[in-house]
Amino acid sequence: MVTGIVGGLAGRGVALVAPLVVMPMMLHYLGDDGFGLWMTALSLTSMAVFVDFGIGNSLLTRLAVSFGSGDYAAIRSYIASAYFALSSIAFLLLALLIGIWFLIKTEILSIGGLSSRNLGIVFSCFLVFIVSIPLSVIQRIFYAQQKAWLANLWTAGGALFSVILCIAAIHVRAEPAFVVLAYSMPAGIALALSSIGFFRSHPTCRPRLNSISREVALDLVRVGSLFFVLSVLTSVALNVDNVLIAAFRGSSVVAEYSVPSKLASVLSLIVTTLFLPLWAANGEALSRHDYAWVRKTARKMSIAGGIFLTLAGLSLTFSGNFIINLWMHRGFPGQTEILAGFCALAVVMAIASPFNMILNGAGIVLFQVKIWMIFLFVSVALKYFLLSNELSLWLIPVASVFAYGLIVASSVIFRSKKELAMLEAGRNKSYIL
C-alpha cells in the first residue's frame, strides 16, 4: 500500500503537469468559447465514467480476492468477461456517436448555436473517451494486484506524450478538433501499451476467448450494478459545476471557474492517490478477518490525510494568484475564493476517504448510493439557487463543502465504524466478498 501511495504520488504528479502546461496554449488557441466548451465536454466525459455499468469496480473487487488466493482460472475468466462486456458497450456507444454525427452533418438533427469547429471539439472528446472504456481494464488489474504505482507510471507516460503531441498540433495550426485529439489520444495509447506489456509478462493472466463466461459476466454485472448507480451519482455530483455554469452564465464564464478549479484538482488527485490503494487492501484484510488492521489504518490515514491536505490547501490558496498568473498569463475574477473553496472540499474528502474505502472493500454500496443521492439533490439545489440569483461563483464550491461534510462524510464515518464492530462481533456476514 505504501508503494502504491508513493509511486502514485510521483506518477500522478507528472500527469498533473500535462494540463497545466497545455491549458494556457489551449485557451489562446481555442479562445474563451472553445476553451470553455472543451472544459465542459471534459466534465461531461468525467460524469460519464459510469457507462461501464460498474463492471470496472466489481472487477477490482473480485480480482483482489482472486489474486490473493492464486486462482488464475478465475482471474482469466473475470478479465476476459470484463473485456467482452466493456467492448460491447464501447461498440454501441461508438455506433451512437457516429449516428449523431451523421444526423448533424446532414442537417437532419440541428443543434443551435454550435458551430462545426466547436462540434468537432466535443466529438473528439467523446470519441477518445469511448475507445478508452475497454482499455481501462488494465488499471483495475494493477490496482487489484496492489500495484497502483505501475498504473500511475503508465498514466504519467501518456501525459508526457500528450503534451508533446498537443504542442506539435498547435504549432502546425491544426484544426481545433485535431488539437483536442492530440491531447487526449496518448492516454488511450498508454492503456493499450500497458495492457500488452502486462499480458506478455503475465501469461497466466492472459484472457482467452474460451475464458469468457456468461456466469462470470453476470456476476460482474450483479456486483457492479450498485457500483454503477454510485458512480452515476458521484460523477455527476462532483462534475456538474461547469455544466450548470455554462447553462446559467455561458461557456465563456466556465473559463473563469474552471481554471482555479483545475489548479485545485491537484488536491483531488492527491486524495485519490492516497486512499484508492486502501480499496483492495481493505478487501483482502476483511476476507482474512483482520479488522484491527482495517480500523487502525483508517484512523491513521484519516488524521494524516486531513492534516496533509489542510497544509497543502493553505499553501495552494495563498500562492494561487501567483501560480494562475504565471500559468495562464492572466487572472480571473474571484479565483482566490474559488480555489479556497475547492481546497476545503479536498480536506473534507481526505478525512472521509479512508472510511469510504472500508465500505467499498466490504461491498457495502447501497448505503453509499442513498447518501450520495441526498448529496446530489441538496448540492445541485444549492447551486441552482446561487446561480439563478447571480451570486458569486466562489459560493459554488462552498456549497459542495457544506453538503459533503454534512451528508457524506459524517454518514460514511459512522457507518464504517458500525459495520466493523458488527463484523468483528460476527453479527454481519453479508458483505460480497
List the helices and strands and how they pair.
Elements: H1 2-47, H2 55-69, H3 72-105, H4 116-135, H5 137-144, H6 148-171, H7 176-201, H8 214-239, H9 241-249, H10 251-275, H11 277-287, H12 291-328, H13 335-362, H14 366-388, H15 395-424
Helix pairs in contact: 1-4, 1-6, 1-8, 1-10, 2-3, 2-5, 2-8, 2-11, 3-4, 3-8, 4-7, 5-6, 6-7, 8-14, 9-10, 9-14, 10-12, 10-13, 11-13, 12-13, 13-15, 14-15
Helix residue percentage:
over 70%
User: Rough shape?
Assistant: globular
**Rounded radius of gyration (Å):** 22 Å
Beta-sheet strand percentage? under 5%
In DSSP terms (H or I, runs of 4 or more residues), the helix count works out at 15
Encode the helix/strand succession as letters: HHHHHHHHHHHHHHH
Say how many strands there are.
Answer: 0
Write up this protein.
With 433 residues, this protein is mainly alpha-helical. It folds into 2 domains: 1-214, no CATH class; 240-433, no CATH class. Helix content is 84%, strand content 0%. The model has no long low-confidence stretch (mean pLDDT 84).
